[in-house]
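To fix ideas, we quote verbatim a fold written out as C-alpha cells:
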Amino acid sequence: YEPMDVEALKKTKMRKPKKLPIWNEHTVTERILMTGWRRDIDDVIVLLDELVSPGSELHMISELDVEERMSRLNDGGLDPDTDLHNLKLVHHVGNPAVRRQLKGLTNPSLSQFDSVLILADEALEEDMMHSDSNCLAILLLVRDLQLKDHNFSKRINARTRRMSGMVIDTF
C-alpha cells in the first residue's frame, strides 16, 4: 500500500464527464413457453417478471393440474394475481415430451413463442439420467416442430423487434 500524493492529486485537472446518449429501448412484450415444474419455480417466475416488459406472457405446460400449481405457487409465497406486475401466467396441462400435446398448443402456437425454457421436472429428479433425457427430448421436439412450421421462419423474435425499434428512433 502506497500513500496517495495529495498535492499531486490537487494539481491534476479534472475533466468534465461526457454525457451518455439517452437509451430509448422499446418495450416489447414477449411470449415465453416454460416446460416442466420444479420446487423453486416461484422464484424463477418472480425473476422473469422483473426482466420482461409489461404485457408479456408466460405459458406453462406441465402435467400438474392448474389447482395444484396455484397451490404450490401460493405455498412458495407467490400470488400470481397480485405479485406479478409485467407477466401474465397462462396454464396448459399436458406432457411437453409428447409431440401431439405440444402441437396442440394453439393460442399461441409453438412458432409464436419468443423463448422456450425447458426445466427439469421435479417428478423425475430422483433419476438424473431420465430427467436429462426428458429435457433433451423436449428440446429436440420443440425445435423440430418449430422448423416444420412455415410461419416460424418468417417470424421476428422479441430481440429483433426491440432492436429494429431502436434503429428507427436514431434517424
Q: What stands out?
A: The beta strands are 31-35, 56-62, 87-93, 115-118. The helical segments are 6-11, 41-51, 66-75, 80-83, 99-103, 128-148, 150-154, 158-170.
